Amino acid sequence: MRPKMLLLSAALMMATSASIAANNDALVYQEPSQEIKELVDVKLAPYTLIDDKRENMLLIYRDSYKSIADLSIKEMRLAGLRINPVTNIGSRVTYFNEVKIQPVGKSKIKTVSGLPNNPRLTNFSWSPNQKYMAMTHTTETGVELWVVDIKKAKARRLTDATLNANMGNPIDWLQDSSGFIVKMLPENRKPLINTEQAVPVGPTISVSDGKKAQNRTYQDLLKNKNDEFNFEQLASSSLKRVTLRGKVTDWAEPGMYGSITFSPDGNYVLVAEYDRPFSYLVPYDRFPMTSTVYTKRGKIVTDIEKVPLIEDLPKGFMATREGKRSIQWRDDKPATLTFVEALDGGDPAKEVAFRDKVSQLPAPFDGKPSLLIKTQNRYADIIWGDDNNAIAVDYWWNTRNTKEYLFNPSDTSQKPITIVDRNYQDRYSDPGNIVTKRNQYGRSVMDIDNGQVYLLGDGYSKDGQFPFLDKFDLKSQKSERLYRSEYTDRIEDLRDFDVDTKQLLVRIESSSDYPNYYFRKLGKDKLQQLTDFENPFKSIQDVQKEVITYKRDDGLDLTGTLYLPTDYQEGKKYPMILWAYPREYKDKSSAGQNTQNPNEFTYPFWGSPIYWVKKGYVVLDDAAFPIVGEGDEEPNDTFRTQLVANAKAAIDAVDKRGLIDRNRVAVGGHSYGAFMVANLLSHSDLFAAGIARSGAYNRTLTPFGFQSEERSYWEAPEVYYTMSPFMHADKMKTPLLIVHGDSDNNSGTYPMQSERYFNALKGLGATARLVMLPKESHGYRAKESIMHLLWEQDQWLEKYVKNKPAK
């Protein structure tokens, strides 16, 4: 048996700063060539928020990227949160800076007046009557509450900069739309501790009491007592009632409040409050938490559940805690709580007939809960309808199975009917999503029309994608297709259906036409256009693009989206970039399905390889890289073999078309895709160079599972060893560009992963370059970072791929 971990020399394990500095020949941010740059610096179309009555559209605009100055503002990383302690809102929040209103079906667009100068808006929330849109504005000193009167297209400020948005959206509408319950900074908040300057008063101690606590490798956790103190100060809020006129009154005493949700009738409020003891092993959402029901006036009614600190859970992705969880209001009743409890003790290893049960407890919440339904798999959701109809959904990761149960919530003596029982990775059999409507309480429930409901589906099939609208009879459980999109040159995404008017809300796009919204009346061909957003990437709107299909050596069907260079000439052979991300499956049938559409709008976002069609490259994007493990075999048991087979099949398929010089092919990927790249370069000779961004390369640093691997290192040491590129750094013979944000917060992808891997490669004489992007997280946000990233990638590809010397 191979050793569990390589023993590296001290030279390989030393700090990387010196080697990085010696190779850092770009001391300032660089910009890519003009061909690429003109696709980056564009004005984006707005996000569209349409009210349920389809009367008004709110158009909200933002800049494409933040600046590096934005990311350099002081940030505190505590218990899984990243907080700006000055403004009291998440330090990585996306802000919008312009708001417009367009009446549905009208061309006139009104700019909302009254907004602050240089607005930084987020936390948009419709009022229950949808006459107003609430939002927050972040000033230099804090967060304010603002509201837009939709009819008047006018915004006004309701509070000073005293909101506390550190734990998420701080505003919750009252059910009558007269105001809000708002999280505000407590008056008695204590000054924060400067942890960089504070003198320690003792060591930090963690204790294991013999219970297994097999947690993932979370980042941004609390580390010491000073962190605990700062987290409590930043997480604590006073709950206030704020009227639409800006009157502020007390509602509840200070606490570390999480979610706040009103009952459908508005008479009660379910409040989640976190408490000590804190943990250095898990983020805040696993700290002790109490769910309490209040009256709408702020008087405590009763505690529903007290959850202890959750550091230890049974092994497995389907493990859960004991006690009440998923505590929610029933959408079709005035004030009835529902909650879920595990019937297997939360342990997926136990063999039981039913995994979970769902119960309900109506107001005044002093009776005995009554059973609604038991689920065979782990509970996922309930879609409420009326007194006699509801649909429960469950799933089980290990088998990729999901079930949907039609049941009568008023008569639990009736046995639930299983109406869906399928592999949720099987996209061809997806029945679609049930159409909902707003009921008298403003909640979304199934739109039941004479005992029938409607479903909107993506419509993936072996022949292509054809979205559909079905009618489903709740009594007979039979379906009838009412509409099937027949476009072959564009995508018609069915977003909603109005049962009364028989009108679909659709979004249509093509590879060159930016997505826009339309109304489609059933039985009529004519569309009513609602928006008219232009393509901001016109220089590549005519790029040749298609989804190609090909087979792996074992006969598995694969796909990829192929782009030809903008200067394509028939007969000429080009360099190629292959971009991919591995995905695990438990059956070959699902793994071989085609869910790509060549009519999808060509959108060169910051992480895309599509830019290089303008630099003379063929691009195979989103190449299928399935990793299949059927029956008792786990996908990762043959991970490397399948990776190489996927890559070879992709290159062979494009090469057979006479498009590429297969000696000039690069491979790239982000996150788990970066892990893929390093493995491919170490265990094949298919590529001229690679680009690996924000990856993890040593799986012994994620010993309690990673991605879709739930076995621990001690259960499958050979798998961890075989899959880790770090363990095989001596096999790297291909130039590799490694990029990582030095503030990565993703589980397992510590910046150290790239630093240590690069140091190993350098020590062993491989050709590699490490680029650490300051202030960037797992995805990159600053314009300066994006421009420099594209420059680095372009330089690397030009040197080691396009201009690679012939053999």
Unreliable segments of 5+ consecutive residues: 1-22
Give the overall pLDDT as a whole number.
Answer: 94
Distance between the termini: 38 Å
Strand order of the largest sheet: 39-40-43-41-45-46-47-48
How many β-strand runs? 48
The number of helical segments is: 11
What best-fitting shape do the alpha-carbon axes yield?
Answer: globular
User: Which structural class do the helices and strands define?
Assistant: mainly beta
Instruction: Please report which band the strand proportion falls in: under 5%, 5-15%, 15-25%, 25-35%, 35-45% or over 45%.
Output: 25-35%
Helix content: 10-25%
Biggest β-sheet description: 8 strands, mixed
Radius of gyration: 28 Å
Structure overview:
This protein is mainly β. Strands 39-40-43-41-45-46-47-48 form an 8-stranded mixed β-sheet, sandwiched between helices. α7 (639-656) crosses α8 (672-683). The longest helix is centred in the C-terminal third of the chain and has 20 residues, at 783-802.
Which secondary structure elements does this structure contain, and how are they paired or packed?
Layout: H1 10-13, H2 17-23, H3 34-40, E1 47-50, E2 56-61, H4 68-71, E3 76-78, E4 81-84, E5 89-90, E6 98-103, E7 110-111, E8 121-126, E9 132-138, E10 143-149, E11 154-157, E12 171-173, E13 179-184, H5 225-235, E14 237-243, E15 248-262, E16 268-274, E17 289-295, E18 300-307, E19 325-329, E20 336-342, E21 356-362, E22 370-375, E23 378-386, E24 389-396, E25 401-407, E26 417-423, E27 433-434, E28 436-438, E29 444-446, E30 452-457, E31 460-461, E32 464-465, E33 468-473, E34 479-484, E35 491-498, E36 503-509, E37 516-521, E38 527-529, E39 545-551, E40 557-563, E41 574-580, E42 583-585, H6 588-591, E43 618-623, E44 626-628, H7 639-656, E45 660-670, H8 672-683, E46 689-693, H9 717-723, E47 736-741, H10 751-763, E48 768-773, H11 783-802
Parallel strand pairs: 41-43, 41-45, 42-44, 45-46, 46-47, 47-48
Antiparallel strand pairs: 1-2, 2-6, 3-4, 4-5, 6-7, 8-9, 9-10, 10-11, 12-13, 13-14, 14-15, 15-16, 16-17, 17-18, 19-20, 20-21, 21-22, 23-24, 24-25, 25-26, 27-30, 28-29, 30-33, 31-32, 33-34, 35-36, 36-37, 37-38, 39-40, 40-43
